[in-house]
Amino acid sequence: LVTSTDFLNWSDPRLIFAADKRDDVGTLQRLEKVRPLLSVEDDPLVMRSEVYGVGIYQAESCTIGFPWIFSINNRAPASLHGNQEGPCEIQLAVSRDLDNWDRPFRVPVVPLGTTEEWDSGFLITQSNALRVGDEIRLYYSGWNFTHGAPCCYAREGTGRGSRYKSQIGLVTWKLDRFVSLDGPPDGGTVTTVPLTFTGNRLELNARVAEGGMLRVEMLDAAGRPLPGWSLSDPWTGDRLRGVVSWGGTTDVSRLASRAVCLRIHLRSAELYSFAFRD
To answer: pTM of the entire structure?
Structure first.
């Protein structure tokens, strides 16, 4: 990370995003998925994972990252310049300040295709995902070969352009639906940290299955129920901007600027995000 206030003077670079031991532990599993594509056998002394690059999406309250996780099994033969061999998949990361990054899920958000498909070996994203209306679009490049494949370094006699190809793909999500907090069929709750807000209504981006339910309580900063703000009216359906009501009333402006917690009750429901709006 380097920063500047005038684009002339810059801070010294700091390493803030790198592969760790948890990535290394998952290397073998990722290699096994592409075993038929690898050009060399595994070397335990070389095997590791690296962050090959990262794309982003600038959401309202955070930055979503799409790190390209490169899993290395060995070095390719010297005749192929000895480059590192292995696949690359796209995972998920998040930061609220561009300095501290969380990666709770070390699984692909864009999975590799099967070994017969065009995007089975190596994936990289565009620099920025795009918001188009209520849809998030992420373009990516996919190869049906891995990083040390012969076609990377020689044109003739390798299958380049016929057997080995690369193409452009597109992944789409409904607005801000990268990750959900799920309530089981027998129900569950989650309570937020204390927060302050502006606005006069509470909107949820959520999906409730048939027979399910979602309700919200307003609590004070200590987690005590606020009079008049107990369980909201049941919230159902599949909505990006569903408004929460209490006894038919949606106006929450009386609580604006004071610290409150939300306790959200979910049964067979998926909560993606919430926001206070004017």
So the answer is: 0.91
